[in-house]
């Protein structure tokens, strides 16, 4: 028996070593296509490396990150009426006139530029940054991701419930719903850019003008007020079918006899949805939210094609720094920031939605 156990132990060791050798190519590939590029970007983020340049590369420590993320908040003092010595009132608005924000923002050791102003407890403040374009890009990307994912989840759930029902032409309806998702982003973005033209050559301006809701000259893509709603509308139109497909897959896995039992107990459709469907779809919703949020946070092509340099996402800003300014070190730091933001959202989802490993 002892010899038999020893033989089995030796065989297990041989199998374990063989498994390690078989997995070795996998680890080599992972290092080549994932770990090495990530470490390379991480290293470059601490340098002043210029793309396609013979200039010597210098180690600048955290300067790239400081330029990207350095923020300050300063109080903006009101203008003083020399006659009364009190804050000056704007005769048009009836509100206090404040001094220029530029006058209160620091200029050394780094020059801060205005990101925005806000009023708190009767005092006016200015938010300054060394790179306001990147701060705007981070904010716009997060707002874009949150709003698009929420709307796509709601509409995706509605469409999934519709096409999961039994009715004539259900197969055709499923195929039609997937059409926007099948259209390449480059094509759909350009198509929407044409429809959002700032005159009556654009579809939406023409429709609004025909309905008497405008003069047909609404600058959807050049006015900052309309830019973000336009981006959200385009992405929701394109990506809702993806969410609907994921929700439909989850609905197909729910046994029909559960709903039959609920009908016998007298539960109406609304109660069944909130007490049966949603809890049973929790895992599917978690996967859909993680994938869509991470995808939305790294949005590039939509912003790049439709808005260009008029408004950035985090990814398009990184592209701009690398291609237009050839600042490889600076764009690498921006890429690391994107990676950190994605990681934070992924961990938040895992903890909030209770996604756990099999071992736990």
Q: How is this structure best described in words?
A:
This protein folds into 2 domains: 71-130, no CATH class; 133-352, MetI-like fold, CATH 1.10.3720. The chain has a 3-stranded antiparallel sheet with strand order 1-3-2. It is built from 14 helices and 3 strands. It is mainly alpha-helical and 360 residues long.
| Secondary-structure element pattern, one letter each | HHEEEHHHHHHHHHHHH
CATH superfamily of the largest domain: MetI-like
- Report on the biggest sheet: 3 strands, antiparallel
Low-confidence stretches: none
What is the terminal separation in angstroms? 37 Å
CATH architecture of the largest domain: Orthogonal Bundle
SS summary, helix count: 14
What is the averaged pLDDT score?
85
Structural class: mainly alpha
Number of strands: 3
CATH class of the largest domain: Mainly Alpha
Count of all domains: 2
Shape: globular
What is the helical fraction, as a range of percent?
55-70%
Provide a quick synopsis of the model.
The chain contains 14 helices and three strands. It has helices at 2-44, 63-69, 132-164, 170-177, 179-182, 185-195, 203-210, 224-252, 256-264, 269-280, 282-297, 301-306, 314-324, 328-352; strands at residues 71-76, 113-120, 123-129.
Question: What tags apply to this protein structure?
Answer:
360 residues; mainly alpha; MetI-like fold; 2 domains; 3-stranded antiparallel sheet; 14 helices
